[in-house]
Amino acid sequence: MRAPFDTLAMRGPNVATLLAVLLTLAACGTTPTKSGSGNVPLPSGGKVKVPVRQDPTLPALPAAGSGRGGYYKDDGPGDNPPPNLRDVPDAEVRNEPYSTRSNRPYVVFGKTYTPITDNEPFTQKGTGTWYGKKFHGQRTSSGEIYDMYKMTAAHPTLPIPSYARVTSIDSGEQVIVRINDRGPFHATRVIDVSYTAALKLGFLGKGSHQVVVERLLPADIDAILAARAAPKPAPLTPSVVAISIDTPVETGEVVQPVVSSQLVAVDATVAAPAPAALESGFYLQLGAYSRADNAETGRARLAPYTALGTLGVVQAGNLFRLYGGPFSSRADAARAAASLPESTGIKPIVIQR
Length: 353
Description:
Layout: H1 5-10, H2 13-28, E1 39-41, E2 47-49, E3 106-108, E4 111-113, E5 123-130, E6 152-154, E7 162-168, E8 174-181, E9 189-193, H3 195-201, E10 208-215, H4 218-229, E11 239-241, E12 249-251, E13 254-256, E14 264-266, H5 275-278, E15 282-289, H6 292-302, E16 310-316, E17 319-327, H7 330-338, E18 349-352
Parallel strand pairs: 5-9, 6-8
Antiparallel strand pairs: 1-2, 3-4, 5-10, 6-9, 7-8, 7-10, 11-14, 12-13, 15-17, 15-18, 16-17
């Protein structure tokens, strides 16, 4: 039984000295806390929360459960995000069978949702939001564990698992995410992306952006995988040809009339320069063809769309790829892709060379 305070006072300085010694020994015997744990133990057994140093490149957000930040209920950012999240690559696409269990019709809030199981194109425009700590570590509709720091997303009807290209109309940024969860179930919201995907799209702090969601079909995934596997084309070496006044110079099948007597650099192998082979930057892959003449036809058809940059055909193995660019950033390339009318039937892929 604990002694009353006045009894302890009557015991004089010996008791006070003994208590001081005991507290000193207890402090010396305490196991040091691990760095980054964020908690410091107190002699009483409680803990004091110590702020964790955040990545300075991340936007400052109100804490989860703080009632601020416009988060869903008590959702929000994690306490200690991993470093270098801006460098996390897009989801690694691959063609895989759809889950039978995760693609059955279901009902939420009285509304029936029927997941897509065909291979038809799907494009949707609306509000994109993100979800984080409240669901981090929980099981998703696919059965996978949700990791807010990976490139994933929830969608009401896109197949599980599948992949989608998400473009922020506000920022112009573009990412590819893996669809492995269901939601959001709100009339104006079309997709919930992970914390990291929202960071890369530029709306982590704002909470939402207007976005375009584009389903990646099996053929799109095949094209992406082929582009990644293809060796980078060697830089073209122009041939210097001396020409005289008013003498046409023939390069392949293209006749270029000459209007001066200066020496000009003419590429002896390709009718027009292929920008992806000449310099680094971001490009739009606008098609892949098995025949060079078809690639040239595709280039001629897209020539009026000047926002696509310089169009060029690059041969990689047995394929002839049509590129547009270069662009200084992925955002610029995404904006150029968005300017291409849907009537062309072309779905550009942003790549970096």
